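Handout, section 4.2: multi-component inputs.
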Amino acid sequence: MKSDIGNMNTKLETRNSKLRVGIYGGSGYGGSELLRILLLHPNVEISFVTANEQAGKRVGEVHRNLAGLTDLVFSGAPDGPSSLTDVDCVFLALPHGQAMALVPTLPTHVKAIDLSGDFRLRDQQEFEKHYNRAHTAMSSQAEFVYGLTETNREAIRNARLIANPGCFATATLLGLAPLAAKGAINGRVIVDAKTGSSGSGAKAAANTHHPQRMNSFYAYKPFNHQHVPEIEQELRAIGDWTNELVFMTHSLPVSRGIFASIYVETNSDFSEPQLREMFAEFYRDSFFIRLVEGSPDINWVKTTNFCDLGFATRGRSVVVFSAIDNLVKGAAGQAVQNMNLMFGLDEKTGLMLVGTNP
Amino acid sequence: MKSDIGNMNTKLETRNSKLRVGIYGGSGYGGSELLRILLLHPNVEISFVTANEQAGKRVGEVHRNLAGLTDLVFSGAPDGPSSLTDVDCVFLALPHGQAMALVPTLPTHVKAIDLSGDFRLRDQQEFEKHYNRAHTAMSSQAEFVYGLTETNREAIRNARLIANPGCFATATLLGLAPLAAKGAINGRVIVDAKTGSSGSGAKAAANTHHPQRMNSFYAYKPFNHQHVPEIEQELRAIGDWTNELVFMTHSLPVSRGIFASIYVETNSDFSEPQLREMFAEFYRDSFFIRLVEGSPDINWVKTTNFCDLGFATRGRSVVVFSAIDNLVKGAAGQAVQNMNLMFGLDEKTGLMLVGTNP
Amino acid sequence: MKSDIGNMNTKLETRNSKLRVGIYGGSGYGGSELLRILLLHPNVEISFVTANEQAGKRVGEVHRNLAGLTDLVFSGAPDGPSSLTDVDCVFLALPHGQAMALVPTLPTHVKAIDLSGDFRLRDQQEFEKHYNRAHTAMSSQAEFVYGLTETNREAIRNARLIANPGCFATATLLGLAPLAAKGAINGRVIVDAKTGSSGSGAKAAANTHHPQRMNSFYAYKPFNHQHVPEIEQELRAIGDWTNELVFMTHSLPVSRGIFASIYVETNSDFSEPQLREMFAEFYRDSFFIRLVEGSPDINWVKTTNFCDLGFATRGRSVVVFSAIDNLVKGAAGQAVQNMNLMFGLDEKTGLMLVGTNP
Amino acid sequence: MKSDIGNMNTKLETRNSKLRVGIYGGSGYGGSELLRILLLHPNVEISFVTANEQAGKRVGEVHRNLAGLTDLVFSGAPDGPSSLTDVDCVFLALPHGQAMALVPTLPTHVKAIDLSGDFRLRDQQEFEKHYNRAHTAMSSQAEFVYGLTETNREAIRNARLIANPGCFATATLLGLAPLAAKGAINGRVIVDAKTGSSGSGAKAAANTHHPQRMNSFYAYKPFNHQHVPEIEQELRAIGDWTNELVFMTHSLPVSRGIFASIYVETNSDFSEPQLREMFAEFYRDSFFIRLVEGSPDINWVKTTNFCDLGFATRGRSVVVFSAIDNLVKGAAGQAVQNMNLMFGLDEKTGLMLVGTNP
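Output:
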């Protein structure tokens, strides 16, 4: 296993073979994490990174963690497809609603991975209800593949356009997929999900004001978080899902991390080892899924692309615990994992983002 | 309402009429909070406070928040009932298992409030299973009243011995009691409960080591937390409870606070206002229950005796959110609230512990 | 000492004798803390509290910690002196620059305590340089007394107008006053001061964005913090101050608290006990000054009106450590302490805000 | 600059050429960070890692961040030099006092880097005073080179034994070295240093108990921290140091990071640009030193090997701000940086540990 890791980061790649990649929307946390990962990706060269409000500033001035590591400068709004002649792939880390306008203008030789919610939902009505805006590019939507890497690998390899999953959706779907695939779930499923403050984005707001947030825990958007329809859509794709989903989001006083406690009633009794075996089989080729003893802890996945899963069972009452970093496996990391597959690379390339203790 | 508050803290009480109170186990967080409250309680004089390991030390040296506020000194292990001649009431804030030995030796003129789990359970087998020790004072147990103030007021007024509820049990029962009393619950109930680090006590331990804890969120004791049997016992007393309870405890990276997300399927549809009305009626005489718009937040109850409750509903799917300070309403505050009732005082006396923003 | 405390909070006061108090600017953290303290003050009745943007909202809706404790509603901008006929005292917790306009319009029977920086500086040029605005009410300024209670008690008792000290100034001056009064300081003094995030106010901003702030520590406003001139002005009043002051402010990832490490070279050698004795003598009548063994800790003063002072010495190198809660002793608590003196009350009245462990 | 980074992590190295490295003491935070770095180091193969109490356990079970990344198992106490035949280099991350016994037994073909304080001080008396134990290997000490990479590169390249600097010493020396080298400092220097809780190690203790620590800030070990003599020793080596050093350590409520505010009086006036130029020149070949605008922030160096330096000046009053990650540049990262030099590698190899925003 060890040597495997070594290989990931020591592959010799000639300059000529590098993918040329552009980032739309590089000043937020999604963009920040894409930059952190792609700057060291052995097969990538960053062609451009946009950030309207920060255009002209050096990347290392805005993301001060990157000072000394890159000479990149933010450019302004994209100036049309002609500028993409040399580009192989673009990441869209824009506010909801902007990718819709951009994607139809992309030249067909350019692959795209959208980190927003614009193209995740196949049902226009569902989209418009949850995102509170008209959808103007449903014909493009039809080309998109939902980028939950572990359940959609083959489709992703062949895709030109990827709708990267939401952070809550990633944590939840990875915890439910093996059970849903077996049709083992009975009745309603309850997901009690919690996120760190970076989930609210890079702009200061009342709910992320430090004096209060550091001592807070509260629920928000009961039942109606915009990730619910994409979770239901994908569960229907994975298994024979007709169950009720009760989805509740809460705010944690940490910077990074999502933890989902997923309560399921199964069709038959499960011991914890039986459940573990089912998951191990389902994820046997999935390096970034770790099945842990007891409960996972967001501390052990922070800054990494891992999803840690743990279990507790009592007869037919099953609880799956799922922990990810909302900005990595829940956003930028999974996006790069998908890019790797789309260009024939090992999905781990550039994603050996080792966590820390403490 | 304002003048009401004023009255609480301006009651003129002559020295002679003050209750004489002793505290067994004053060095932990339960003891710390009892001291904070009782030092300013207008009807209380503290006779003694024990702390074996700290005996001889000034209280303000151990609880440095209390420096300058009291000359009290910790005494050693209690030296028998003879020393209690002058004492009206004792609080037991001892590790699990120690109250069992002490209570049977108390003179009958002394009332007692036990903050440990020793006397909460009527069923000896349940106790021994969850606390992992033999019970040696079940005959005393029969005299104990369970001290969830809001549901047990009359019994508490007449009690000599109070088993003060567990912190998780308090948050959960206050969120479920109105529904259970109406027999409105169908099927299994799921309680996703989260606690701050002070719930682990005042002694340093691996799970409260700051470098890791500040970035952690994880589940522990799945299904089997020792507060489960007391919750079930009291729900049977409040209503006609035969439901399954799935109870899951998690650790939050805050110092103080419990937040419980309680998932219920009701017998019929409920709107949020209907639910609120049911709760308002049930708690109409309960000053310390606040029904909030949207979700409660532990930030608004920290250091106070309030339990904030909020609701979300979708047809028969009902979620109750319950937030308390684990050391106040979940321990020392509720204990003093019970003492007030046992001695004919207004239950709010000495408990106007106003929270802070931020 | 204990009974002393009891007396503070059990004074019987008839309604008629209560001071009628108004608060201008009740929605920020200064206002929030004034409300927390004054609602329970046995000699105070709150006549009004303004908050332009929140006018019409219930106080407990904005400061959710106060829900259930008051029926007060925020009023709009003050409507002129006629409305103050019945008012004895007003607190001004307004943004810098607004008190200047308001104070000259106050009827002379109304006493006022200004928590902003508008009236702290006797030198108009110093004011205009540090606050970056013209001063329009210097004739009113001449009437103001600087409200550092422990060094200015007699003047405060007789004052109609109080300029309440800045939070950094309070922590620093209380640590330096005894040494300055003795003329014991030689050469330059270095103050390395650190503040919690509530020092930035109740409005969300980039520097208090939780995802970043929780892991941050940094310096800001080197040499030039606006509290420097008030510190120098008061040191000149207390002693014969001609020393250089190097004052450096830093941001801490806590919600509340200021910690100042004050580096002094003294004229002669000092042992730690000698220094302690000097401070004990200087503060012998100052209940809210606690001299601690070793270092103070902001944890033990948070939410209280205490200033904890500790010492370290090596020959003529002396370090004084000063810890306060920036919003209490550094703002609202000291303001109420001053009000108490101005109206002939014990300065501790209503200020027995006991801290917590943890 | 960008391609530079790329080269670091894409160097093709054959298995045969890899350094074989052993770690003594792999269960603490120093060991944890060495493992995180060395597992991905392209030129290193880990031969063994010891941890007495954890012997037999998998590394990924103890450092759960490393689960899935290595099959390494902790071994027990080192079993003598014979086991080191194949080993090129060992890291000693043992409690103070243990390296002293081990180093004299190492075969001469093995290079060693000691992260403890055992071999940093050339003066036996100073060692015994500050570390409170006898030194039993002063003859070995004479062979050690002090491993502050940026000031000692040439000696490090040729060294067999390295005494890796203390975390506070690293932050302080990097901030003072350019000024000391110029002999520009007049009079006493004051260092106000602050550290995160991981500086106390991986074992839970009272001062790192989360419920209290999360709201704490306090000073400790005034004047006498054990890093003081190594700072003074190295300043004498760098320049003509005869100044007084006042060194004060404080505890921050973050997990990782050291921030030092260094107050200097210079021989002549300095503008901030002049100071910056002096530092830029001194560190012109030092990739891991970043000179920032305004103040550094520990948030931007956490988990990285960078030392960020910032400045403020007023005439001859100069303040240097220095920020590092105590476990990386202050321990494991600098140790690997030194190993790289000792074996002829680029000092950046394996140390492109990119920080994160947030």
